[in-house]
Amino acid sequence: MVGYVLLEMRRTLRDPGFVIFGAGMPVLMYLLFTNLGPDDDGAAGWKTTAMVGMAAYGALGAAVSVGTGIAEDRSLGWLRQLRITPMRPRQVVLGRAVTSTVTVLPAILAVLTAGAVSNGVRLDAWQWAVLVLLLWVGTLPFTLFGIGNGYRLSAQTAGVVNVGALMGLAVLGGLWFPIEAFPGWLRTVAEYTPAHGFAELGWATTAGHAPGPTAVAVLLGWLAVSGSYAVMSYRKSARTA
Fold it and tell me: pLDDT tens across 122-169, in order?
């Protein structure tokens, strides 16, 4: 399985579209969102909050996009080749998940670098390290969701569904705008979304404390559901191929 993971990593990182849009677009959005308004006393706090939100958004985009690549591989017959290998369904799904968790790092690091260099965000060394680690590990549920879509849907449909899910999760989870600006009922819903729980890992770190139990519970629940969905989708694709 190690060889399979390394192969998929090389395939992904050689894609110039992944590098440009996966890492560059979140940085551009972050710099626009944080430098268009007046530079008042609350700007420093907003630049930190937005940095975490956009790093989470970039990581989510890279995580769910793995599903589109899987759907394209299905159309090319690559998955049929994998099924004749000794790897079990869980190993194949885990291999793609591990690959994606590595390829989300460029988006996370690019946005955090822009925050530190361009916007002057200052955190303790341990906060930077924990921030990268939590945002990196926290993408796993979304990776599995994208993988499930890739095994179940066509390439075109998977791309549309993944982009739609990314946009919906980002907006509703408060990655672009703070949920404090939402109506009361929508704010309550947003607090229980997986994207908000994911970003809360980073916001808690920049505030100097551990993430709340609600955020952790939401992510663990989403991890269980999306993991089961990914494995079932792979098995279904094997029966229908």
Answer: 999 999 999 999 999 999 899 889 889 988 888 889 889 988 999 999
Q: What is the pLDDT of residue 81?
A: 65
**138 or 237, which is more confident:** 138
Six token digits for residue 178? 């703070």
Q: What is the spatial distance between Cα 29 and Cα 36, in angstroms, rounded to a whole number? A: 11
Taking the domains of the chain in order of start, what are their residue ranges?
2-240
The fraction of the chain above a pLDDT of 90, given in percent, is 43
- SS (HEC) of the chain: CHHHHHHHHHHHHCCHHHHHHHHHHHHHHHHHHHHCCCCCCCHHHHHHHHHHHHHHHHHHHHHHCHHHHHHHHHHHCHHHHHHCCCCCHHHHHHHHHHHHHHHCHHHHHHHHHHHHHCCCCCCCHHHHHHHHHHHHHCCHHHHHHHHHHHHHCCHHHHHHHHHHHHHHHHHHCCCCCCHHHCCHHHHHHHCCCHHHHHHHHHHHHHHCCCCCHHHHHHHHHHHHHHHHHHHHHHHHHHHHC
